[in-house]
Amino acid sequence: MMMTHYMELLASNQPWNLILFMAIPVILAETIAVTELYLLFSRRLNGKVASLNRWASVLVGIYFLGIFVYLFKTAVIPLTISGGWRGLADVVAVGFYLAGVVPLGGMALLGLNIIGREKTAEDKLKLHAIWVAVFLIVAHIAMIFGMLNPEILGYVAPVVDHMGM
Predict the structure, then answer these.
(1) Side-chain half-sphere CA neighbours of 158 within 13 A
(2) Over the stretch 17-46, which tens digit does the pLDDT of each residue have?
């Protein structure tokens, strides 16, 4: 069975790649999602939960920007130049994983008050909830396609001639 580069990244260098590229971002994102629900239902936009939500948003946005830059330089560019992509599933998995930088970056910028300064607390909450929803969508698309065998969507692995013929 063939793996996407997404899945190969998580399976390699155990447990470190899994921790760095999946566990840390997911734990922070789940913290944001759970605290976001509390904030949406309670409307208590100040206090410990709101502070946790804000700082988890800032931290994951900055952290994921680092992941984005690292993987773009070490994986996306080399795979594109060498033609090493493993078909559509591979491109979708990696592309959507890296697209997570947009909503996570939006949450960080909002948390740092770089964007949305003129918005009311209620409007900021709505915008933040939208970023959370967008992140959940792109992350789940990445996971689904990342776990898919690329051959299912038509990828054919190149035949390697070990005999030099």
Answers:
(1) 7
(2) 999 999 999 999 999 999 999 999 999 999
User: Tokens for 152?
Assistant: 């299912």
Cβ-defined contacts of 157-160 (< 8 Å, 24+): 157/2, 157/86
- The domain locations on the chain are 5-153
Residue labelled with tokens 């770089």: 114
- Name the CA radius of gyration of the chain, rounded: 19
Q: Which residues contact 90 (CB under 8 A, 6 or more apart)?
A: 4, 5, 6, 145, 150, 155
Tell if the pTM clears 0.90, that is, is over it: yes
Measure the CA–CA gap between 14 and 8, rounded to whole angstroms: 11
Determine contact, residues 60/29, Cβ cutoff 8 Å: yes
Identity at 101, one-letter amino acid code: V
